[in-house]
Amino acid sequence: VVSARRVSRGRVKTLLPGEDASDATDPEITRVWERFPKILRRRTADPEHIYHVHSAAVELLVKNVNPTSEEALIFEANPGPGVLTKALLEAGIPQLRVFEKIPVFVGHLELLKEQYPSQLDIVREDFLRLASISASDEYGVTERTSQLLRGVPHLPWKNEPVVRVVGTLSRKKEVTFLRFLLHVLPQRASIFAVGRIDFLLFISGLEYTYITSTNKDLRRYRGISVLYKLFFDIQVIDKVPRRLFLPLPPKWKPKPNNVAVDHDNLFLVRLTPRSDLFELLTPPERLLELVFFIRQNMVKRTAYVIPTLEKWIPGCGPRLIHCGVKVFSRMGDLSPDQMLTLFQQFSALSEYQDSPFIAAVTREMREEDPSYPEL
Fold it and tell me: Hey, which residues does 232 pair with through a beta bridge?
């Protein structure tokens, strides 16, 4: 369920017409970039990493981190200057594991480690490069994923999340990290092999539109919107101005496109894998087929449902109509639950297992994983 609450901007200053962004730079931001000028002071529209360094963001994260139990681990991805790291330790988080590769930041974090030796664990990895890490593991070159999760117990899927990942994502990391999560989650692979792991993340306005858009807004609604809602319980918590994160964005604003996007704020969301995820379909391995079904059919959201599915299984239209599918329904008109129901009806057809659809799924899966069984 996607929920939102009233946004509080607190003491954040609003830019006046004609005011230069640099004139409104918050003293907290200035103090941090003066300590790490080579890394953080340069403005950029497309940074590799974005760092939460201002109290407006840090206090919000600390307030909402809420470990599910005393045994639960908090992972902080790319802590950078360690502003949140210090705040979490001071708040009494019993087990905090941070992932940082940049040497100057690692050195600063090691000073915190001296103050909190039993609470803080430093791992010299970029957790947000999980796709690359998992790929190298699959080829047998490394075992880096298991190192990220060392000491984390394997728990039944319905248990409370065993790890909470906290971080701020640049657009580059959203595309690689979040898409990878959507890829491995239905397989219960990579980090999800240990059980449910949830995420407390600042994301861009663009990703926010994908996560929250519904079938009432065909311009913004995407296949990825359907996958997010089927795979995760989603909570939208708050938003914080982008100019309170480092590196600062450029003074010019992105050109508007056809989809209205809030580029001025980052949105704090909690993504928790659904406890009933592997009960949506029988057998649960069919989730991979569901992903392919959604991705293929949401490419053209204005396509009519019946003609589209008859390309996979000729003559299936009357049977689907008998099951309740409306004749003039378009793919983009379907809610996530309706899309799931449509797939359940489609996959229950007698021709399904021998259809070109299954052949296409198998072909794609084998391109990604040669060990995937052939038809």
Answer: 273
Q: Which domain holds residue 326?
A: 284-368
Predicted pLDDT of residue 14: 39
Q: Which two tokens stand for residue 322?
A: 């008998």
Residues 193 and 341 in one domain: no
Q: What is the pTM of this model?
A: 0.89
> Is a pLDDT exceeding 90 seen at residue 114?
yes
User: What is the model's pLDDT at position 136?
Assistant: 83
* 125 appears as a binding residue in the annotation: no
Has residue 367 got a pLDDT over 90?
Answer: no
The total domain count for the chain is 2
Does residue 12 belong to any structural domain of this protein? Answer: no
pLDDT tens for residues 247-258? 999 887 656 565
126 marked ligand binding residue: yes
